[in-house]
Structure prediction request, 427 residues.
Amino acid sequence: MSSLHHRHLAVSPDWLALYYKRPLELTHGEGRHVWDADGRRYLDFFGGILTTMTAHALPEVTKAVGEQAGRIIHSSTLYLNRPMVELAERVATLSGIPDARVFFTTSGTEANDTALLLATAYRRSNQILAMRNSYHGRSFSAVSITGNNAWSPTSLSPLQTLYVHGGVRTRGPYAHLGDAEFTEACVADLEDLLGHIRTPAALIAEPIQGVGGFTSPPDGLYAAFRRVLDRHGVLWISDEVQTGWGRTGEHFWGWQAHGQNGPPDILTFAKGIGNGMSIGGVVARAEVMNCLDANSISTFGGSPVTMAAGLANLSYLLEHDLQGNARRVGGLLIERLRAIGAGSECVREVRGRGLMIGIELVKPGTDEANPEAAAAVLEAAREGGLLIGKGGGHDTSVLRIAPPLSLTIPEAEEGAKILAEALRSVG
Prediction:
């Protein structure tokens, strides 16, 4: 055990998870690579949990942060803040929500917490619909709507949460159905549920479930849900903390794969927009955002430094068409990984879009989750010089692959080769 690991254990909660048997101390990064305290370089296919969106040490972002820090670091939302207004203007336009208002937070958890506050206040209801296998953050309210037992440490809740089918396409009671029939069955389930309860405030859903293992429904499911929700006056919250900013390649936001009946009422975001700086936020149409009848501020949300970083990062993303790069390079990487998976008895499915890819592992010859294999592949990939993540629900074990969106084709090929070796090492 390293000295730093020993010190970490002495002062940190037991439930604060660390990857690897010998946890890594990362000291610096550049592009798609990071280095540890021993000077070893790794290809980063996880980006600090989908957060280093463009590249490590991106000069445009570090310059913007340094220049802003040299002027003023903090003011709070009690004062006018030019970088915050400028980023809010750009996010409002990009969101697709008409007459949009933007509120900045410091994390995705806080963004989802704010969205729940808005929805329950607007609808005068504390009932929330959420998806099975979902994850929405670490706060008391966000944990209470999380449909993933591994990340929900308490059943106590300020909200009444009811869980809907549809977030996981290839498991569960409707897995055997075709896409159209799957959607029809999930909509019928939603209709039936709403017939048994008082009208809830909102449905919150990740277009692609992140912690749950990069699972997703057929395109159009949430549009079909939207028709039902609108009849009942129920809001739709799209949790874009992991799917936003073009990561899926095909769309800028995950909700756009389900946009046939319009944008969500509320959209939450975080992670990638700050490229490592603490930025989260909520976008909602004005009547929803303005429904609160009490004063509110944010001490750290919309900080001048983080907003400067977000502006520079978003500009780089758009000017260099990183959404298009995610589509092109991600498509190639998925093909490579599916070819590799076809030769492994441990691989049940390779799924995903753009640079948001999951490899579901099972015990050979079964459909049973294989968490031991996931842990072993994580370790083997690290030994090969590749950092990846893992996740899944109660019956799945999934390797999570989400590199910075500037990933090159040679880097994608290199990462696929290391993953192939790691999978072979566990059988």
